[in-house]
Amino acid sequence: MDASSQIERNRKVRTVLAIILLANWAVAVAKIVFGWMSNSAAVTADGVHSFIDGGSNVLGLVAMSVASRPADDDHPYGHGKFEALASLGIGMMIGIAMLELGRMALDSLLHDRHPVVTPMMAVVMVGTLLVNLAVTTIERRQGEKLQSPLLLADARHTLSDVGVTLAVLGSMGLVWLGFPKADGIVTLGVLVVVARVAWGIVKQAVGILSDTARLDPQKVMNLTLQVPGVRSCRDVRSRGMEGTVYVDLKIEVDPQLTTAQAHELADAVEARLQAEFPEVVDVVVHVEPALLPSSRAQLSTR
Questions:
Q1: Would you give the DSSP letter of residue 278?
Q2: How confident is the model at residue 299 (pLDDT cuts 50, 70, 90)?
Q3: Quick one: which of 10, 11, 20 has its CA closest to 156?
Q4: Which residues on neighbouring strands pair with residue 289, listed in sequence order?
Q5: Residue 127 neighbours by CB under 8 Å, 6+ apart
Q6: Which residue ranges does the record assign to the Cation efflux protein cytoplasmic domain (predicted)?
Q7: What crossing angle do the helices spanning 81-110 and 41-67 adopt, rounded to 10°?
Q8: Alpha carbon distance, N-terminus to C-terminus of the chain
Q9: Helix or strand or coil: residue 283?
């Protein structure tokens, strides 16, 4: 991906985040207001969850403004990892939401709180459910299209809102049927859903930030060995994020090759790998002379 394409891609990611931010905060306000009016811990907790979704979008917008900057002397590989840092921040914000959800659930279970379920509350919750479904679908599709870990992470986060809202609707039905404790019990169930989402997001972000291998080394070696003139390939390493992968490896070639010929061979390896893996933006090929049979025999006798 060239610099202009990267800039355009980041602009589109920011646009999606801005739209999702408005939707999340509109949903959050509706849930919190009606949760407070009805004395429902589950609905209020769901609203807090949606509000933190919006906070995550703000964090993402700030991160993308940094991630979109081109490479410079201090960041020769670009600023893409700031996007992964934002994803990690989303996971941390979900953790904060979990603490609040736990507090509200215990408060509902240990104290005599009786939520008031009204038809208007049900309408609001169904409406926010439809908004969350639309947001999740749009964000996931755009995340896949733009290969953005930030959008994909936020889409998974928003998807948790769908499950949460469904659970809250269920608790409202139980409260209406005469089981007020269902409000606190469902809120505890929300914690489990949120915890799973947080773990997935944090795991992905940590993988990027800790330079987890992005490509199968054996597959890279096999492709490299298909290039005429390459006698062996080893020490394959890859890192980066979806859409921006860096690879370095070592190859052995005929020791009689000139420097220019060895360079052409390295270029051929780079072209072969980038043709197979479009997400690869840079390949560093370290060329070494292959040992002659006589040299190998001498080494084996030592």
A1: T
A2: very low
A3: 20
A4: 253
A5: 30
A6: 218-289
A7: 170
A8: 49
A9: strand
Q: Are 163 and 22 in contact (CB under 8 A)?
A: no
Unique residue bearing structure tokens 């659970």 = 167
pLDDT tens for residues 6-58? 677 777 887 888 888 888 888 888 888 888 887 777 787 778 777 777 766 77
Q: pTM value?
A: 0.60
Residues 6+ apart with CB under 8 A from 108: 41, 42, 181, 183, 184, 187
Kindly state the tokens that stand for 283. Answer: 């390949």
Over residues 232-275, the pLDDT tens digits come to 999 999 988 766 789 999 999 999 999 999 999 999 999 999 99
Tokens of 81: 């990892």
Instruction: Give 124-165 pLDDT, tens digit per residue.
Output: 888 888 888 888 888 889 888 887 877 887 787 777 777 778
> Angle at Cα 284 formed by Cα 282 and Cα 287, nearest 5°?
155
Range(s) of the chain covered by CATH 1.20.1510.10:
3-209
> Which segments of 147-258 does DSSP mark as H helices, in order?
149-176, 182-209, 217-225
Q: Where in the chain is the domain with CATH 3.30.70.1350?
A: 217-301
Q: How far are the Cα atoms of 20, 33, 131, 161, 292 from residue 143, in angstroms, in the given order?
A: 12, 31, 18, 18, 50
Class of domain 3-209: mainly alpha
How is residue 294 written in tokens?
């006589």
CB atoms within 10 A of CB 236: 19
The CATH number of the domain covering residues in 217-301: 3.30.70.1350
